[in-house]
Amino acid sequence: MAVYTHLGPEQVSLFLSQYDVGDLIALKGIAEGVENSNYYLETTKNRFILTLYENRVDPADLPFFYALLKHLHEAGCKVPRFIADRDGRWLQEIAGRPACLIEFLHGVSVTQPNRLQAEATGAALGQMHAALADFQPQRPNSLGISVWRSLARQCTTSGLENIYQGLAQRIEAECDFLELHWPKDLPMGAIHADLFPDNVLMLGNQVTGLIDFYFACTDFCGFDLAVTHSAWCFAPDGSTFHPDLSAALLAGYNRHFAIDVPTRDALPLFLRGACLRFLLTRCYDWINTPANALVTRKDPLAFLRRLDFYSDKDNISAILG
Ligand SMILES: Nc1ncnc2c1ncn2[C@@H]1O[C@H](COP(=O)(O)OP(=O)(O)O)[C@@H](O)[C@H]1O
Ligand SMILES: N[C@@H](CCOP(=O)(O)O)C(=O)O
């Protein structure tokens, strides 16, 4: 459960008194998520999410996320907005943590997506990339290729070998390969960078919300597509690839965003890079998550299996034609 900072109703009621959102009638810690503490709140007027920023979110980045969500909302994308208090402040502090009150969106995250849901997600990602073409603010990707090798070293050889024998060397070799071939001059834009099924809210086959923009950054759109592909088109443990979901996701995306040829040519690299990024952060968390943290660690090897799959040229040809 991702509740690192515990809050009581009195504390939250006091916090809410700065806003014009009614009185607290229900407060619940949210089990899902790994990065921040999230609470579900009901007031006499509405429902909200209260997020306390922990772990990897740097408060200095919050204005970027605020501007991004505002821009996307104004462009008609289904994303939650930050709520401002009576004085117009959307960034607050509670229990010593930076915190924001956020619009609640209806919907649930699917765990076994079907073809129509994959297509709707591809479409939502394409719409988002199209809407962000004129978004100016920038944020470097703090979990991009420039940090992968140092992240691997922070995991230490023995830490990685405890997870899987041969993993340290496999990761080192993948860093060598990707650093050598990674494109430099492709078009960049703001990207979500973590559009896993748990970050897409759906009602039936319709997307009702894209959430959790806290890894959003400026990087290649093709990398975002690769992250989403790796997250949506496999069984969760990475053991089985679902070609029907892949075709649907790419079709949905292509309907809304025209990918340029150099980006398309770089997709095989981006797919491998996406796997390495999540393999590394999952390894780091596997090794470093304190035993008493109320959070479920995610299996790093699920992304090693995906990496193996994307490293096979025949598999790539079957995906991209
Ligand atoms: N705006 C929102 N509307 C509805 N539910 C939300 C919203 N934001 C977060 N949630 C719920 O909280 C959970 C955790 O949020 P998330 O931002 O993914 O956390 P983390 O950043 O810790 O991974 C989500 O899976 C979802 O159930
Ligand atoms: N999506 C990442 C971990 C980040 O978790 P999220 O709940 O913030 O999406 C992974 O699966 O490794």
What can you see in these coordinates?
The protein has two domains: 95 residues, Phosphorylase Kinase, domain 1, CATH 3.30.200; 206 residues, Aminoglycoside phosphotransferase (APH), C-terminal lobe (Aminoglycoside 3'-phosphotransferase, Chain: A, domain 2, Alpha-Beta Complex), CATH 3.90.1200.10. The radius of gyration is 20 Å and the shape is globular. Helix 4 packs antiparallel against helix 6. With 321 residues, it is an alpha+beta fold. Helices cover 45% and strands 14% of the residues. It has eleven helices and nine strands. GO terms for molecular function: ATP binding; homoserine kinase activity. InterPro entries: Aminoglycoside_PTrfase (IPR002575), Homoserine_kinase_II (IPR005280), Kinase-like_dom_sf (IPR011009), Pseudomonas-type_ThrB (IPR050249). Its EC number is 2.7.1.39. Keywords: Amino-acid biosynthesis, ATP-binding, Kinase, Nucleotide-binding, Threonine biosynthesis, Transferase.
Question: Quick gist of this model?
Answer:
With 321 residues, this protein is an alpha+beta fold.
Task: Estimate the global geometry from the Cα principal axes.
Answer: globular
Report the total helices.
11
- The run of helices and strands is HEEEHEEHHHHEEEEHHHHH
- What is the CATH architecture term of the largest domain? Alpha-Beta Complex
Named once each, the bound ligands are:
adenosine-5'-diphosphate, the ligand N[C@@H](CCOP(=O)(O)O)C(=O)O
User: How is the largest sheet built, in terms of strand order?
Assistant: 1-2-3-5-4
Uncertain stretches of 5 or more adjacent residues:
none
Question: How much strand content do the residues show?
Answer: 5-15%
The CATH class assignment of the largest domain is Alpha Beta
Query: Which radius of gyration do the C-alpha atoms yield?
Result: 20 Å
At the fourth level of CATH, the homologous superfamily of the largest domain is Aminoglycoside phosphotransferase (APH), C-terminal lobe
